[in-house]
Write a structure and sequence with these properties.
By secondary structure, the chain is an all-alpha fold. It has 2 domains: 186 residues, Hypothetical protein af1432 (Orthogonal Bundle); 174 residues, Orthogonal Bundle (Hypothetical protein af1432), CATH 1.10.3210. It has a two-stranded antiparallel ribbon with strand order 1-2. It starts with a strand and ends with a helix.
């Protein structure tokens, strides 16, 4: 049984994965929560509402990975860089066109880039799909993670505009949930101050007052930003600790084992939404992991912890462009470096939660090999925990038996043969034996 974890600590740490997939500077969701909660207080929201607003702000980008593939299809570009820049677009046609010309056909030659720009301009009418997919998926996952309908509505309506020109439903004024109105203003502040300056953020607030942004929310935001020390707080290295300490509400919510499973499963959906080729990957790796662990005689508590590690082992892939994840041919050196970085991203995100030390180790080392030829650190067998070895074997088995953009799947028997050949070199022989027994047992049950 894992000790209870404070919900705010868990969500605050995992929000860094959302920053990655949204192309934002690390800590974006935390900074947005700091600004937005202060706006809510200025507007006089009661503590109960402030509590839900707080989680809306940290989870506002829950659906951000769901539109990555479609974005790459429309603009033929790196979805992460595109998203990072798109939040600085002011909504005017020149600004939108600059975004398209800057990103469409990135890394193509002149002819390829021109072709991509023309394709993107013709497909512009479909761009609204990107917002619709993101908003609806984010709200669905928030509900799965047991957050209130108010939190789900705040996430779903984040891109609605005060003047009715937003998405996904063209809501207007007070039809838009107050959490969404606050979150959009706080997002504008952080994006433009982080990438530009406080003065730029203030100009954007004033320029969008009454169009994108609720005038009352903008006025409250400006009052908050006029307070001494606010801009320094946003740059402070201990801001996350301050945000956690300032969680609204009378009591601190602790996530027990069942709730923790729901949160982890929700984030697994965020991870796997990044690519159609990884749909269900985290769940399947978790299932295989538990079967191997059971064959090795691990306890129910150890199996539960391993299942969480397997569900989150690829969380760092949220920092890899869908263009790389879905490439149908071999990766070039730059792309391979980006792909390899996902393990370090996983470890960095999960290590922000002290109780997730084992999960962080698995996330960072699941592509290491016994012979030291893996990545990112080239660790050898005696440096790899049993948990890491189990998840690594389950991960490769699922990767081999699932379709990938560069090859068709192979059968479980063929995958076992491939893995068996590398036992003692890549994979732990004990884990390989356990996997073979688990597959044989499943086959026997299927045939019964």
């Amino acid at each position: 049984m894992l000790a209870q974890i404070r919900l705010a600590e868990l969500i605050g740490a995992l929000s860094h994965a959302l920053d990655l997939t949204g192309g934002q500077i690390a800590g974006h969701c935390i900074r947005t929560a700091h600004i937005g909660t202060a706006i809510g207080r200025r507007l006089g929201l009661p503590e109960e509402q402030l509590h839900d607003l707080y989680y809306t702000l940290m989870l506002k980008d829950l659906g951000c990975s769901a539109n990555a593939v479609r974005m790459c299809e429309i603009f033929d570009t790196d979805d992460i860089r595109f998203k990072g820049d798109f939040r600085r677009v002011d909504g005017t046609l020149p600004s939108l066109l600059r975004q398209v010309f800057r990103h469409a056909g990135a890394r193509r030659g002149v002819a390829g880039k021109l072709k991509a720009i023309l394709k993107a301009l013709r497909a512009g009418k479909h761009a609204a799909q990107l917002v619709d997919i993101r908003c609806r998926r984010g709200a669905e996952i928030a509900r799965q993670m047991r957050f209130s309908e108010d939190v789900a509505a705040g996430i779903r309506e984040l891109d609605e505009h005060h003047d009715g020109t937003g998405r996904p439903d063209g809501l207007k004024g007070e039809e838009i949930h107050i959490f969404a109105r606050i979150a959009l203003a706080a997002q504008v502040v952080d994006v433009h101050s982080s990438h530009g300056s406080p003065e730029q953020a203030l100009r954007q607030l004033s320029a969008r007052r009454g169009t994108w942004l609720d005038p009352a929310v903008v006025d409250a935001c400006l009052a908050v930003l006029a307070q001494p020390g606010v801009w320094d707080d946003l740059k402070a290295p201990d801001l996350q600790l301050k945000v956690l300490a300032a969680e609204p509400g009378q009591t601190v919510i602790l996530a027990d084992d069942d709730y923790l499973d729901d949160i982890v499963e929700g984030f697994a959906r965020v991870i796997d939404a990044k690519s159609p080729y990884t749909a269900g990957h985290s769940d399947r790796v978790a299932e295989i992991t538990v079967k191997i662990a059971e064959e090795l005689g691990l306890s129910a508590s150890e199996c539960r912890s391993l299942r969480r590690a397997a569900l989150l082992h690829d969380i760092g892939k949220l920092g890899v462009s869908a263009r790389v994840l879905n490439k149908p041919s071999g990766l070039d050196p730059e792309e391979w470096t980006e792909m390899q970085a996902h393990a370090a991203h996983s470890e960095r995100i999960l290590s922000k939660i002290p109780a997730f030390a084992e999960l962080a180790e698995v996330g960072g080392a699941h592509h290491e090999r016994l012979d030291g030829r893996g990545y990112p650190r080239g660790l050898t067998g005696d440096q790899l925990s049993l948990a890491t070895r189990i998840v690594a074997t389950a991960d490769v088995f699922d990767a081999l038996t699932a379709e990938r953009p560069y090859r068709a799947p192979i059968t479980p028997a063929e995958a076992l043969a491939v893995i068996r050949k590398t036992a003692g070199v890549h994979h732990d022989p004990l884990c390989v034996d356990a996997l073979e027994r688990a597959v044989a047992r499943d086959n026997a049950l299927a045939a019964a």
